[in-house]
Amino acid sequence: MRVPLSWLREYVDVPVGASPEEVLEALVRVGFEEEEVFRFDLHGPIVVGEVLEFVEEPQANGKTIRWCQVRVAPDGGHAADAGPAVHGIVCGARNFFAGDKVVVTLPGSVLPGPFPIAARKTYGHVSDGMIASAKELGLGDEHSGILRLVELGVDAPVGTDAIALLGLDDVAVDINVTPDRGYALSMRGVAREYSHATGAAFRDPAIRAVDEVAPGSGFPIAVDDRSPIRGRVGASEFVARIVRDVDPTRPTPPWMIARLTLAGIRSLGILIDITNYVMLELGQPIHGYDLDRLTGGITVRRATAGEKLETLDGKVRTLDVQDLLITDESGPIGLAGVMGGGTTEMGPATRSVLIEAATFDPVSIARTARRHKLPSEASRRFERGVDPAIPYVAARRVADLMVEYAGGTHDDRGGALYAELPRTRIALPAGFVEGVIGVAYTPEQIAGALRLIGCDLDERPEGWIVTTPTWRPDLTDKWTLAEEVARIEGYDRIPSVLPLPPSGRGLTPAQQGRRRVSNALAAAGYVETPSFAFTSEEQNDLHGSASGGHLPSIKLANPLDGQMPFLRRTLIPGLLEIAHRNVSRGFTDLALFEVGVVFLPEPGIRYGTSFVPPLAVRPDAATLTALDASIPPQRRHVAVLLSGNVVAKQPGAAAIASGLADALDAVRTIAAAAGVTIEVEQGERAALHPGRTGVLAVPSAASGTSVEVGYVGELLPAVAEASDLPGRVIVAELDLDLVLSLSRTQPVAPSLSGFPAATQDVSLVVGSDVPAAEVRAALVEGAGDLLESLRIVDDYRGAGVADGAKSLTFALRFRAPDRTLTAGEATEAKLAGVAVAATRFGATLRE
Question: Domain named TRNA-binding: which ranges (predicted)?
Fold first, then answer.
């Protein structure tokens, strides 16, 4: 809400010297958010001038200019720029005449843009200033001609400061009004709140001596709402006043244009400007109809199927049966509370105006505005709740302004429908406010704060019965009253006390495990990059299954992105998108990871529900069970992605590109943090390179078999290219929930033996089709408890090894916890492992 300060001062005593920042500071104290300050961005010598004469001079470019002599100071005086009283000015406009008074921007002034004015040579003359249009002064969008003061109904002596004359010295402050405080979308509401903040005297502009229109006093009005929303009729009040013999060509006063412009509304002519002005002043949206274009009386009703309406924006809209309409005998003439229709709009030919001020149901207006994607200043106020006590005041205010500034006359034949004013009565127990807010307010402070905002109080032994004001529909219970007391008394009185957490056992084992895995990957140099949980069906099928075939995915009813409407089955598409974004910004060496939820619907089960349990009521067990069943199983996965170099190029050393071994190191890091052993076997995935893909499995002591928990591999070049990623891309993904469930205990740091280790190497010749991991497992099994570590160091195929075979070299380290091992003990343990490998795979020692 933009608030011009000159307008605010009409209803509350703002100090003359108060800066916009001080006004904003006061409004922030009562709960508003500060936005910014708006000014007419112009300054310098801008004065009233009189066109003495001009000469029209055709130019070679086909344009005709006027060489004008303009008086900008009284006879014998000096101009505001210290120049002569008469300035020569070149002007291209042709809508002014000799003797006209205009606005002259003298050298040294600055117009919005910024556009500095200086004497300059043009068209063979030195133009000593500029004659301004309304657009150049920031007063509107009209740029077709010079601003003539006679058209504004303004007269002032030559040399008068035009900035003050036209109200261009005003300033507006912008505040953010929360949806529950719709009353503050008006000068009336903001002035009241400034009064609350500062104690300044408030003058309510809605308290006026007006004659209420008697119901049914001439113009027929009816409400026929057979389909109310939530049982509430669409229109509870409707006031119509008639003003005849208006002149729509009369100028809008400059002060009104300036205030509307600062408030963010452009001038559209005197009749529309007046309706907008009163809406901003009182918060009551107003609509004006060309009375001569109406057919019969007005009926407020719901639309029927297939009805159409051309709104003021020129669009023909197909109406919904829940849309609330303003109609006459010809059909719809407006979307109630949202926008009027084109058939009855006021225009240059309007001579009689029917003024509408009504109270519409907020829910109905909000739904209509959203349904037609048609937000308006009127709907913005109606959907937040408009004071039902002021429609007749606002209608009379508009009529008075049209009589004063558009030359109209009152017509007593109006029409009205009234309803009993809704005023909520709330029981506020003694001690309740202090208990909720945590501040020791006195009864006098509580009662004073509530009376200040307009409540009536009936004091009782047990507390108060509070009757809320008509302009505060947000006050619905004792908690909202407590909030108001805290707001008026000052939020700074509320102590900052940290709540004490309840006693408990801390994180669950699963939470601890996830945290260990994330911390371990981060410590290993990976960067955590959370991504959106949405993707396309193609990406789900490509990365979310081993075969790449179609699996069920959950499609959102209202996706944020129409190209990614499915819940993800895998984390890899999100990591690929993040990698692409980084590469596009020049970051090519990437080591990323994410821990997140994936959604794994089961075939043949339909998920989702159209049932929404009622608000403010705790669902019962059956409802919660049904809601849980409507959601697909959700598993927490961990995934890593490597691209570019794992070691950057350095002096004397070449860069080392990331490869499959680095991804396997990440898998081992995850396994160590989770407290499990992960084995790798060759496998296949639709998006991964054949021969460079591994299946990850955890041996299960209970069943004696291995449980598959994920995969690791290099993306196919075509898949990487489709993601706009250069070079090789290696990924790994594990079901973290499953991995943690297979961990029998939390990982414990191993104890360090004080005895030295014995190292041995062994080279085994096996068939080339025998996986190295299986040979390693056989060595581990046979070597027994003395084996501390075993790793493969070479895979050789060539001279000295038979065709169809390979030589695998392993480095073994043995250690005993209670003694120094002898070479013989280490050799015996190694040969025991070789014996197991020989039995299973026919392995032989390489000579």
Answer: 40-163
Q: What does CATH list as the number for 758-845? A: 3.30.70.380
- pLDDT score, position 306: 87
What's the pLDDT at 611? 74
Residue 552: what pLDDT? 84
Asked if 383 and 377 count as a contact pair (C-beta separation under 8 A), the reply is: no
Domain ranges of the chain: 2-30+177-198, 46-165, 221-417, 425-490, 509-613+620-741, 758-845
Q: What is the pTM of this model?
A: 0.65
d(Cα 64, Cα 110) in Å, to the nearest integer? 26
Distance between first and last Cα of the chain: 89
- 484 assigned to a ligand binding site: yes
Superfamily assignment of 221-417 in CATH? Phenylalanyl-trna Synthetase, Chain B, domain 3 (3.50.40.10)
- What pLDDT is recorded for position 704? 66
Q: Does 474 carry a binding-site annotation?
A: yes
In whole angstroms, what is the distance from residue 152 CA to residue 132 CA? 14
Q: Would you state the torsion angle of the CA atoms of residues 447, 450, 454, 458, taken in this order, to the nearest 10 degrees? A: -50
Contacts 24+ apart (CB under 8 A), 57-65: 57/123, 57/124, 59/123, 63/92, 64/94, 65/90, 65/91, 65/92, 65/123
Contact predicate 352/300, CB 8 Å: no
Q: Fold for domain 509-613+620-741? A: BirA Bifunctional Protein; domain 2 (3.30.930)
Q: What is the pLDDT of residue 216?
A: 53
The 10 Å CB-count burial string (b at 16+, else e) for 280-319 is bbbbbbbbbbbbebbeeebbbbbbeeebebebbeeeebeb
What's the sign of the alpha-carbon dihedral 817, 818, 819, 822?
negative
What is 46-165's CATH superfamily?
Nucleic acid-binding proteins (2.40.50.140)
User: What are the residues whose beta carbons fall under 8 Å from the beta carbon of 711, sequence distance 6 or more?
Assistant: 546, 683, 685, 688, 693, 694, 695, 696, 732, 733
Structure tokens at 351: 């001579």
Inter-CA distances, 728 with 106, 277, 524, Å: 68, 65, 20
Structure token digits, residue 497: 């006390």
Q: Are 117 and 129 in contact (CB under 8 A)?
A: yes
> Is there a contact between 67 and 94 (Cβ–Cβ < 8 Å)?
no
The answer to whether 506 and 455 have CB atoms below 8 angstroms apart is: no
Three-state secondary structure along 738-777? Answer: HHHHCCCCCCCCCCCCCCCCEEEEEEEEEECCCCHHHHHH
Task: Provide block-wise average pLDDT over 10 residues at a time, the chain (847 residues).
Answer: 94 92 93 90 91 93 92 88 91 92 94 89 93 86 77 88 90 91 94 94 81 65 78 85 93 90 90 96 95 92 91 91 92 93 92 94 92 92 92 93 94 81 90 92 94 93 93 92 93 86 82 95 96 92 82 85 91 96 94 96 80 79 87 94 92 91 95 91 90 89 80 95 92 96 71 86 93 90 92 90 93 92 92 94 90
Residue 733 marked in a binding site:
no
C-alpha 417/C-alpha 776 separation (Å) is: 91
* Identity of the residue numbered 361: D
Beta bridge partners of 133: 146
